[in-house]
Design brief:
This protein has one domain. The chain is about 40% helix and about 20% strand. The protein has a seven-stranded mixed β-sheet. Helix 3 crosses helix 5.
Length: about 180
């Protein structure tokens, strides 16, 4: 392979990585809509305290009678779970749906990237309620180098740092910026 071909290949790869990086951290600007159930969940949560979300991967739910009879664990009783489904083809307004399942309050949203969808929901809650919400993410316990490489090359993974950076770019005032917490 000639030096010119290698140079062209490296330039094309660099341009692809830079374009992916730019899209990953672009603040959400498409708008957001909450359904009636989501508004009710958020309104009840803000009546007594700031909104605390816990970001989770979408899970299947057992909708059969008696399939979800367990009571919520005490340390999750005040939390609202946020499920983000990633659909690369998603464009336009984020639609947030609320539901109750097995005693838990869950908001679901679909977006082109998890970080941008979480940031849009947090900013939307702040704008609707006037309260600055926070979100908790779990941190992977293994494979940090692999996750970092996927993030740098493909723009996937590392949702917590991406969400924080998107929020930083979208809201300059740190007092109005939703908070991102990361833990095991």
């Amino acid at each position: 392979m000639s030096v010119v071909a290698v140079t062209i290949l490296l330039v094309a790869l660099s341009a692809t990585v830079l374009a992916t990086r730019a899209r990953t951290f672009k603040p959400p600007g498409e708008g957001i809509r909450f359904d009636e159930a989501a508004v009710t969940i958020i309104a009840r949560a803000t009546a007594h305290r700031p909104v605390r979300l816990i970001a989770i991967k979408p899970t299947g739910r057992d909708l059969s009678p008696g399939g979800h009879a367990e009571a919520p664990q005490a340390h999750y009783a005040e939390a609202i779970f946020l499920e983000v489904t990633v659909a690369r083809a998603h464009r336009g307004v984020y639609h947030v749906h609320g539901e109750h399942y097995s005693g838990y309050r869950i908001l679901t949203v679909t977006g082109s990237s998890a970080g941008r969808a979480v940031a849009a929901v947090l900013l939307g809650i702040r704008d609707v309620t006037g309260h600055v919400p926070s979100v908790d993410f779990s941190w992977p316990t293994r494979g940090h180098a692999r996750h970092l490489l996927r993030f740098l090359l493909l723009g996937v993974g590392q949702v917590a740092p991406a969400t924080r950076e998107i929020l930083r770019r979208a809201e300059a005032d740190s007092a109005r910026r939703p908070k991102v917490h990361v833990g095991p």
